Every structure is written in structure tokens, then in C-alpha cells.
Amino acid sequence: MNKHIWTDNPPRTSEQRTAERKEINVPARLTWKDQRGVQRFASVVTRNVSAHGVYVECQSAVSIPMFRLVQFQLERTVREDDNLPDALRSGRVLSAVYRVSPGTTSGRPQCLALRLMIDPRRMAPMPAEETRATA
Hints:
Layout: E1 22-33, E2 39-49, E3 53-58, E4 69-74, H1 86-89, E5 93-101, E6 111-116, H2 120-123, H3 128-134
Antiparallel strand pairs: 1-2, 1-4, 2-3, 3-6, 4-5, 5-6
């Protein structure tokens, strides 16, 4: 006798992302406040971006815990790249650290995955009716 379990979850596919991820190699900066409220800075290299997040390599080890809010900012000289999401072109973007990959003594750098804290209404295309009403 076979037992079937009904679920509302669709089968997993190899790509579960809601936005395309683009490989890049551009300098950026993180700014945050540590547990004592002291402002901290770190230079990073952005390795890939999507409309919802970025993945960065740290130039030196940083002590940023999971879920810490940070300001992410691409260096001014690279912000005009057409491959970048609009949110990253405007300057600082509030982001949350959601994955920390520690560096190794063999030379692999510490990496951070950041979720861009962008209002979903800013990212969603406006329906044609609303576009006409505001034009």
C-alpha cells in the first residue's frame, strides 16, 4: 500500500531565485554600528548582485554577526553600470546580513551575503492602469 502525502509546496528545482543573479567584481563599502554603538567600516569586493541581494568578499576579517543591519554602498566610480539593479545605483542601501562564510588560513576570504532592505512596492512594476493615472 502506497501512502501519498499532499503538500502545497512545489517540487524543488535547481534555481529557486526570484531574480537573476549577475556576476560582477566591483569595490564597495559596508558601514555598521557594532554592539557598543561604535561606527565601523569595511572595504569589500562585490562578487554578485541581484535585485534582492549581494554577495561580498571582505578585504580583511570583520566581526559582523548574522542579521546585523549594515549600509551597503558601491564605490561611486562603478554605480553607472547597466548590469546593476537600480537600488544599488543611488548610493547607500540598508541591508541585513543573512549568511557569513568565515575565511580560512589557507587564504579564502571571509564572505557575507546581504539581503537588500528595499520596499517591494519600489521594485514591482506598476500596473498599466496606475501608470496612465499618474502620467
